[in-house]
Design goal:
By secondary structure, the chain is mainly α. It contains 3 helices and no strands. The relative contact order is 0.18.
Length: 123
């Protein structure tokens, strides 16, 4: 990334960069956004990615896990506790692990496209 150039959504998501200046100041915790960038003072509290990333990740990763669980069941027929031991932690780790990436990408796209809440024009 060149100086003065805004980072791509992938860079923001992977490295936790500020979508304006590229400083690694996007997150305060694992998935919690900082209130503002310490370098360029971009107010990150105005962005709202909501629960969209969590919902989509749960559905997508859930579908993958179900296919894997069915495949393991049909090919190996392990006891029920093996399924519990495998799929519950794997699902939780996959959703939480990818949540940071999804939230970073969405906030980057929201900044890049100046997305705002829809408003109805009144006559």
């Amino acid at each position: 990334m060149l100086p003065g150039e805004a980072p791509t959504p992938a860079q923001v998501a992977l490295k936790g960069l500020c979508p304006r200046c590229g400083a690694p100041t996007l997150f305060r915790g694992w998935t919690e956004f900082a209130s503002s960038c310490r370098v360029c003072a971009l107010d990150l509290s105005t962005f709202n990615v909501g629960d969209g990333p969590a919902a989509f990740l749960t559905l997508i990763i859930g579908a993958v896990i179900v296919v894997l669980a069915i495949t393991v069941e049909l090919s190996l027929s392990p006891p029920f506790w093996v399924h519990m031991l495998l799929w519950i932690p794997l699902t939780a780790a996959a959703v939480v692990g990818s949540l940071r990436l999804a939230k970073g990408a969405l906030i980057s796209l929201e900044y890049r496209h100046a997305a705002e809440e829809g408003r109805i024009k009144r006559p």
